[in-house]
Amino acid sequence: MGADHVDALVIFGATGDLAKLETFPALVGLVERGVLGVPVIGVAKSGWGLPQFRDYATASLTLNNMDPASPAAVKMLDLLRYVDGDLGDPATYAAMSAELGSAQRVLYYLEVPPPLFGRIAEGISGAGRAAGSRVMVEKPFGNDLTSAQALNATMHQYFPEEAIYRVDHWLGLDPVESLMFARFANSVIEPLLNRNHVQSIQITMAEAFDVADRGAFYDRTGAIKDVVQNHMLQVLATVLADPPDGTGLDSWITAKSQLIGALRPLGPSDVVKGQYDGYLSVAGVAPGSTTETYVAVRLAADSWRWAGVPILIRAGKCLPVTATEVSIRFRQPPHDAFELGDHAAGNGLRFRIYPENHAVFTLVGKKPGAGWEPEVQELTFAEHPGADMRPYDRLIGAALGGERWLFAQQDTVEACWRVVDPVLGDVGPVVGYARGSWGPDSASLLADGETWHDPRG
């Protein structure tokens, strides 16, 4: 292991849903890749001992169609330790410390709700186990700018900023890494990504399904907090931020923070909110709720690189398709040499992030035959089937090795909240829309002559 690698992993909330669905399978992947070979200590209040905890991990692997008898799974299960106790009790942290033994550099993974972050950080510190260690925390990082700042202040009482690894699992998605890679590994793309060449940028995150049994959670959250403030602004920053410099990939998180910091805070005229028909009858949803299940926003970046370029994001549930796509539309040639007029087709660059992973460059050629009729062709760089890695495999592995660039830092999180804060809650009307439609009419956010990009093709 490298010098930055930890010598123990402690998971708080290790008997919860995230562990069952994501963490244990990811740990097997890490063992398989030779990244994980240190003790993994689960801490929770379940009344269990180590045998039940191992059984829970085994059941998680089976649930994820993984063989618990495979060599990597057997080794992972053998690394597990368990501490049962109340997270408010100092004795729990003393027992954790005893289980850690001589470990000096520990990664603490807090798979718990944010209100518990401060208590756990205090407990770790009280047991004398905070110094030299790292803490990995799940979103949400607050519910607005004020609560995010308070949460950061609490965490900083016990851990310095460089020891805090804030998880946005979208940053662990292979297609998001592929998007960044395509930008900076191809000299023909990056020079075009600026206001001189780009007409507009759109990101669509469409989900064809509803909130299902998550009504109570979703009703407190809504589309802006659930996916725009975090996932979509991180994807946007991956598309627009300046390239990493010679200091390496750690400069990338600073570049993304600067880009998001340059976005103007949204106002009511920049937002269209919608709620799908039938949402109010979902279990857990408050009567008369005005929580948005669809949102479209128009952003503007006050930077030399992107000034004046319309940036659009839309996200919603019960839309016609489940797909996430970034669409970059380039400007028309400055002179219409072939007198194509309204029939002229433009160049574009699309990054498909979900469910497939591919990049598509749109070029225009002449259709064979008489006249100057344009024909659009697409150059596609497609994913390799089955080559993807679980996002939590990538993220936990990065935190184990001290790679911070895959995580959100404090100033980026707060900058994201500054963008959306003015339109949270009951700002602006929430318009009903039919299931299977593209949501309420949001054409008012688009520039003249523009339409929303349809990720169906």
Structure description:
It is a single chain. By secondary structure, the chain is α/β, with parallel strands linked by helices. Helix content is 31%, strand content 20%. It has twelve helices and 15 strands. It has helices at residues 17-32, 50-63, 71-79, 90-100, 117-126, 145-156, 174-185, 215-219, 222-240, 250-261, 391-400, 410-420, and strands at 8-12, 40-44, 80-84, 106-110, 134-138, 164-167, 198-206, 271-276, 294-299, 311-316, 323-330, 348-354, 358-366, 374-382, 430-433. The strands form two sheets. It has a nine-stranded mixed β-sheet with strand order 14-13-12-11-7-10-9-8-15, with helices on one face. A hairpin with a 3-residue loop joins β12 (348-354) and β13. α1 (17-32) packs across α3 (71-79). The protein is globular. The mean pLDDT is 91.
